Amino acid sequence: MTTRRASIALVLSIALASTGCLSFHEGRIDGAPKGATFATIKGTPIHYVDEGEGPVVVLIHGFASSMGAWSSIRKALKGKHRVIALDLKGFGHSGRPEGDYSPKAQAEIVLGLLEERGVEGPVALVAHSWGSSVALQVALLAPDRVDRIALYDAWVYADQLPGFFLWSRADGLGEALIGAYYDQRSDEKMAIAFYDHKYVTEELVETVEDQLSRPGTKAAALAAIRGQRFEDVETKYKSIDKPALLLWGREDRVTTLEYGERLSKELPKAKLVVYPQCGHFPMIEAATPSTRDLVAFLGEMAPKAPAASSPRPESPKPEVEPTAPKPEPTEAEPAEEKQQP
Question: What is the pTM for the complete model shown?
Answer without folding.
Answer: 0.85
